[in-house]
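Final report, Chapter 2: Outcomes

The project's central promise was a pipeline that accepts a single protein chain and returns its three-dimensional structure in a standardized token representation, suitable for archiving and comparison. That pipeline is now operational. To close this chapter, we reproduce one record exactly as it appears in the project archive, with the input sequence first and the structure output second.
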Amino acid sequence: MIMKKMIALMTAAVLAVASLAGCGGGSADETTEAVTTEAAGDSTEAEADDTAAADDTTAASEESDMAYVQDKGTLVVGVTNFEPMDYLDESGEWIGFDADLAKAFGESLGVEVEFVEIDWDNKVLELDSHTIDCVWNGMTLTDEVLGAMECSNAYCNNAQIVIVPADVADQYQDVDSLSDLTFAVEAGSAGEEQVSALGLNYTPVTSQADALMEVAAGTSDAAVIDSLMAAAMVGEGTSYADLTYTIGLNSEEYGVGFRMGSDLAAALNDFFAQSYADGSMQELAATYGVQAAIIEQ
């Protein structure tokens, strides 16, 4: 009898221990599973956030240049002081054939136009860093420019010409006569390209206007500038009546430069075609005396 009671008690104790062990094991498994599930949820949310951020970056990089300009409501135009294309009037407003064309193009896009004076030698850097949206400043369509920017169709003819004091002009009527002269030229310009190719001595300056000042001051013997600028600023009745131009070094064409791949170049080509067809381009050119240089669109 006593033996039967002892066996019964031992059996109950074993069952109780087994029951407690079973309860403890189930709780640990459930806790582990809950932690794992929560961590997986957090990871999924993080991945979703990363995906969303990547999508936003992709969307921003794929946004067209036109959409970018229209979203911010401003077309920022890089210029230098270059009469008759871009220059300041007495009130400090940028005017000129290029400046006025740029304003009209901005109006066609539904945006304001802001002009920023740039270092011509850094024009591509200014574009790529989004400091400006285009270079619209009597820019010659050189191979270097065409390789670095998305350019419009040519809209003006031009040439690089030699500027000297009028009283010595008869001594410099061909390229061979230029070898002993020191030139002032705008850094990064088509003028610099020409004098460099000819092996002439020159000093780069900030703008074509500065190059003219160098010659007028006698610190340089000559300058090479755009023919359109020379027509407006050199000779009788101009700011530099004692200077004149002699020989032309080349012939070239002007275009407007945007960031590589920009859809604004095609939009400007359409604007040029419409402006030429309705006569507004020619009328504006006559205002600044460059009508003979206009290229049919």
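Archive annotation: The radius of gyration is 36 Å.
This record, like all others produced under the grant, will remain available to the consortium after the project formally closes.
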